[in-house]
Amino acid sequence: MHFSMADFFFVVNPRAANGKVGTKIWPQLRARLEASGTNFDFEMTTGRGDGIEIARLRRARNYKCYIAVGGDGTVNEMLNGLLSAGDTSPPVVSVFPVGSGNDFARMHHIPDRIDEWLRILLAFKTRRHNAGIVHYHDDSGIRRRRYFVNVAGLFYDAFVVKAVNGRTKPINSSIQYLAVAVKKLWAYRPAGAVIDWDEGRISGHFYSVNIGICQYSGGGMQFVPHADPSATQLAVTVARRMHPLRVLLSTPYFYNGKVARHRRVDCFHTEKLSIRPTDGAVHLETDGEFIGYAPCRFELARDAFRLVVP
User: What is the fold of 131-303?
Assistant: First the structure.
């Protein structure tokens, strides 16, 4: 396949992989790209949110493919920039996965070995991919809109993500993430809410609610094993309030894809979902980044982009 000058644009997060992207991984990848004759441009992010503006501005250049070098947060920022730029044609994207969780890459079996990954990129096989849209409130109470391409989480899930995002020492593995999640169990007070969707309503106090485009989050957990990135509906999992000890005993359900068998869990599909707090703050995260709070409303953006896949 022939590509012309600068067909690829890389959004590079140099702080990913505990800073190894900037010092080691990107220099190696860049050298391999140059040696292969691949035509590309790139830009480094300098802080949280940078990837959104970089991708939004570069969308006007209409590159054949936009690539995130980083973790799930970098993917999320790049896609938010691309999808909010006003161009109605679905962008083509890829990811070189070097984050702590890499749940988006896990879903699509995208490797992190340079030569193998580069062969996949240049083969340029793509598939249609949905995105989710959430309307929510930020810390200041201002209404916001955000895309997500993997999994959005509320209640305890987002409570943990907020704690992880606020750490001065980054999380470098799924084991570390699970350790933080277990430690925070006794500090969390389940919030109350009313959840409405196409065909139902439920109210009460909840342990977690997840809305999935893909299946994995939290470094390999499967809260939404029924998610499909090309489906016509969002995948939703609602876990009702549980004692911390019961949560610990339920841990295997969160990893083995059988969460729907848990007696305090409901899994379903819907085109739209809304959550209104009734008692306490309901935290919200998308693709592993804490962004704000409910009340919030979710909807599906079908075929929002195309993903380069193996």
Answer: Tumour Suppressor Smad4 (2.60.200)
